[in-house]
Design a protein that fits this description.
The complex is a heterodimer of chains A (382) and B (220). Chain A has helices at 56-64, 112-117, 125-138, 154-166, 184-201, 212-218, 236-241, 246-251, 351-356, and strands spanning 21-28, 34-41, 44-49, 71-76, 79-83, 88-89, 97-100, 172-176, 204-209, 221-226, 229-234, 256-266, 271-276, 282-286, 295-300, 306-308, 319-331, 334-340, 344-349, 364-369, 374-376. With 382 residues, chain A is α+β, with helices and mostly antiparallel strands. Chain A folds into two domains: 21-96 and 170-251, Rossmann fold (3-Layer(aba) Sandwich); 256-376, RNA polymerase II/Efflux pump adaptor protein, barrel-sandwich hybrid domain (OB fold (Dihydrolipoamide Acetyltransferase, E2P)). In chain A, helix 3 (125-138) packs across helix 4 (154-166) and helix 4 (154-166) runs parallel beside helix 5 (184-201). Chain A is elongated and about 75 Å long. With 220 residues, chain B is mainly α. Chain B is built from eleven helices and no strands. Chain B has helices spanning 3-33, 39-51, 54-65, 70-79, 87-111, 115-123, 128-139, 141-156, 160-165, 176-185, 189-214. In chain B, helix 1 crosses helix 5 (87-111), helix 2 packs across helix 5 and helix 6 runs antiparallel to helix 7 (128-139). Chain B is globular. Chain B starts with a helix and ends in a 6-residue tail after the last helix. The chains are: A alpha+beta (382), B mainly alpha (220). The interface between A and B is medium-sized, with 24 and 17 residues.
Amino acid sequence: MGALKVGADGDAEAPAGKHALSAHIQKCFPGGFELAAELEAAAGITILFGRSGSGKTTILSCVAGLLAPDAGRIAVGSRVLFDREQRLDVPVVRRNVGYVFQDLALFPHLTAEQNVAYGLGRLAARERRRQAQAMLEQFRIAHLAGRKPAELSGGERQRVALARSLVIEPQVLLLDEPLAALDLPTQSQLFADLRRWNREHQIPILYVTHSQREVFALGERVVVLDAGKVLAQGTPQQVLRAPLQETVAQLAGFENIFDARVIALHPAHGTMTCRLEGSSVELEVPLAKAVAGEAARIAVNAGDILLAVECPRGLSARNVLAGRLVGLEQEGITVHARIDCGVVFQVKLTPTARESLALAVGREVWLVIKTYSCHLLEPEPG
Amino acid sequence: MSWQALALSVKLAVIVSAVLFVVGMPIAYWIASSRWRWKFLVEAVVALPLVLPPTVLGFYLLVAMGPRSPLGRLWLRAFGHTLSFTFEGLVVASLLYSLPFAVQPFAAAFRSVDRQLVNASATLGVSRLRTFARVIVPLSYAGIITGLVLSFAHTLGEFGVVLMVGGNIPGVTRTVSIDIYDQVQSLNYAVANQTALVLLAISFITLSVVYAVNRKVWVL
């Protein structure tokens, strides 16, 4: 499968705990979609990243027991939740897996406190109330205890849903894009509270998202999924900053992906020169196992390219390309510039940069690209 | 007008609604949640009284309650008399006749409860039975009230089945609609009119309650 495996390297918050989740899931759907994923999640937050329809939610459903895999094994530490070969399938109600659904699924007829206390039915009324209130306090919603979900804001509802699924002390927590609708400050505040809770409990948390922004903002580790397969897993920096595969590069938002040909190797400098197809543009990229004349694909993040209005000198960066500005569009607080250097590069700027450089379409500009911002992509598996 | 007949009808309707509340809920839950491929047959049987002429249903019930059927013999041996032409016989007949009026609104309400809430309840470790009691039933109250009110009103006004199974014994099986029929037969139009008006008013009020509950005019 060519998946990049990265161990729990120096992650202080996530010791390779004995309660890591390991899931090996195979499932075929009538429409022809096939899920075949193998993943490990130690204590701490692991992001499941992929576009919609890549199988992220299916994995969560299988772990929770709402869906039975055709084959595979799911275990938390030494506790096996599902094993096809042993014909073992622990029912949902006994899995002790917390699940925050995409639509939260709060009980509309119950108050915030009753929602949180819902899973504590086995306890005596007084103890149930005490635990629910302690949980509401931990998630800073004690003052909303008496309100029904319809009377809460989006962020408050998320907190109730999170508190409800954590109060039963689950062994694993599953989060299905519950924060997608929230703004980033609200999200990261909620995540800070979740991390604080998890410092004490040390359970694996699987967080599903299709937003690259959330991967960097929230994740300690990321598992990249596409079309039901795990493409890569590791830290966000390892996997998304330096994508080895084109699908990962596209998912991670690498705007510049070029076909190129290796024209010279410089082993002494640890670099090689590639010419982009259909142009005379040459880029110096990190050395890889290749021979001159071989085809290659290069990805460059639009945010990693510097733009200058005069030919820059005295730089460490090896690649300085002259070009002409052919497109300039603002989207939110990001300016997307398109520069024709023989091939068209996408560059991300801030509105301030655009103003201070007095950028306008037609203007002559220079692009500066560090060697290590050029990522060579592996050919797609299969 | 005959207060005795009205009281008998109300008693019958209350008992039938109460029994259907208990018996109809599991049937409706099964219909709403089962994925059995032959489920439609059960649904058709439950809905049968909606389209069957009451005399047909009444005829088969009369035969089934008679001493020549195994069921009738069993009852005869246990209680010393047959079910037909007794108040108990009327209750049994009305239960079958009003079953769809309870089960169908119940099932529709259960079906409309978000599946994800049931899933959420399961992941929180709560059993199916408790989930039914704590999530599905409270969120289906409008459908449950509708089912109860409809079976009450429908039992109150039934005629054909009662006539076939119960006959016309004052204080035992003479219900209010039979009473109206009797009065008309004896040309007592004024009395018939009074009783009919009472039935009309009750029917109107119960239906108003059903629609008001479903429009959430009152928050329960």
